[in-house]
Design brief:
Length: 74
Amino acid sequence: MLLPDNIHPDNSVYYNGAIVLQVLQNNGRMEIFELYEKSKGVKEMSFPLFVLCLDWLYLIDAAVLNSGEVELCS
């Protein structure tokens, strides 16, 4: 569930996915761990939550993994 009613919205995949997407938009193509570190610099998040965000961005065709780097879909 993207917006569960039993946790604060700042901890949702939806909110954190928006942060990851913003970092990608500002920096372009990035390696996964570099993207994670920059995303954590904006808002503290666990690595499992970060991976869920990447999964969600992939499912909605917002980001893709190419040769070990994450990039925005065109």
